[in-house]
TrEMBL record:
Keywords for the protein's UniProt record, in alphabetical order: Signal
Database matches in SUPFAM superfamilies: P-loop containing nucleoside triphosphate hydrolases (SSF52540)
UniProt KW Signal keyword: yes
Protein name: G domain-containing protein
Presence of the UniProt keyword Signal in the record: yes
Sequence segments annotated as region (Disordered): 277-300
Domain of life per record: Eukaryota
G domain location: 42-109
Extent of the signal sequence: 1-22
GO molecular function: GTP binding
Organism: Botryobasidium botryosum (strain FD-172 SS1)
Length: 327
């Protein structure tokens, strides 16, 4: 059923034109010319807010719009103007992150997949992928993990040797803390370790142009490799929903729905527990009221009995005599 939802979303999205991608089409042509002259195309991926556009602008000396929350233009692919680095022409491709405010994760994946498969079909290969991650994050957020898992399936194991896992925002966190986090990232089997074990580089970006270029230089000596999603869509003619990345997104969506369900269950259990507690309190109160009532009745009865006491009103020795008689 969720696959069906995904397919519907993708189909629906295919009918719409992504809003802000107009100008990047002209750049594509330029990028393709350069690619033939030993140009180099590198995609920059990673969660929203990991510094993708900032990195691309810094490295390429361009001034593309940096997303700040509600900007829908950042949910499109942006191809930066090519720039020269060590006699090579480098084209950086800024990609949208998941968890976008204006587009669903399925739409974002569709934008990525469409661009990647069009480029591959046109014979333009990626020389590398830079995957950015904020080292300033205290812990890996749900969206960071989700983004990485989808990325892993998008890229595939074979292309991991052409990936640089780059941590950003080193300047906004204590170095020792950041280094400890970096160690943790590679230690966790579910995260960077998976990529690094398959040949991905683990690098740091310190927000300088030197650092950005040093990262890109790492790709100059390599050769392009297709990403798994490119092979699956173009070579194997798979539909996006059936690709590894599509299936992963499906799983993520399902998990989110389940998490939501679990949350609801917990809330419901808490509500039931509260009702039980309130009922118990009401029962105890009723019992106490009843006991008090019984006591009051007994007191009244005692009072009545006292009022009805036959010796009432007698005094002195007569009363003593009466009371002795009553014992
Ligand atoms: C940033 O990184 C570059 C390249 O790795 C290095 O040359 C430079 O010294 C670093 N700058 C700072 C301020 O850490």
């Amino acid at each position: 059923m969720f696959t069906a939802i995904l397919k519907f979303v993708l189909l629906y999205h295919a009918l719409l034109q992504p809003g802000c991608s107009g100008w990047s089409k002209g750049i594509h042509a330029a990028a393709s010319d350069l690619n033939e002259k030993s140009g180099l195309a590198i995609a920059v991926m990673g969660p929203t807010g990991s510094g993708k556009t900032t990195f691309v602008n810094l490295a390429s000396g361009s001034n593309m719009h940096v997303g700040m929350g509600l900007q829908s233009c950042t949910s499109a692919i942006q191809v930066a103007p090519p720039f020269a680095l060590d006699d090579r022409q480098v084209t950086l491709i800024d990609t949208p992150g998941f968890d976008d405010t204006a587009k669903s994760d399925a739409q974002i994946l569709e934008i990525l997949a469409t661009h990647l498969s069009q480029e591959y079909q046109a014979g333009r290969r990626l020389s590398g992928v830079i995957y950015l991650h904020r080292i300033s994050d205290v812990r890996m957020s749900g969206i960071s993990m989700r983004t990485f898992r989808i990325f892993r399936q998008l890229c595939g194991d074979t292309a991991m040797t052409n990936v640089a896992m780059v941590t950003t925002f080193w300047e906004s966190v204590d170095k020792a803390v950041a280094e400890a986090r970096e160690k943790e990232l590679v230690g966790q089997h579910t995260f960077f370790k998976h990529a690094v074990d398959r040949g991905a580089q683990l690098l740091r970006h310190n927000d300088t142009i030197e650092s950005a270029h040093a990262i890109i230089r790492g790709f100059l000596g390599g050769s392009p490799k297709p990403l798994l999603i490119q092979e699956q869509i173009v070579d194997q003619q798979m539909r996006l929903a059936d690709t590894s990345a599509g299936a992963e997104l499906d799983r993520e969506m399902l998990e989110q729905i389940e998490d939501h369900g679990q949350e609801k269950r917990i809330l419901q259990e808490e509500a039931e527990e509260e009702i039980r507690e309130r009922e118990e309190q009401a029962r105890q109160k009723a019992e106490a009221d009843m006991a008090r009532h019984h006591e009051e009745v007994a007191r009244h009865q005692r009072e009545i009995a006292r009022l009805q006491h036959p010796c009432r009103g007698r005094r002195g020795m007569r009363r003593v005599a009466c009371e002795l008689r009553e014992l």
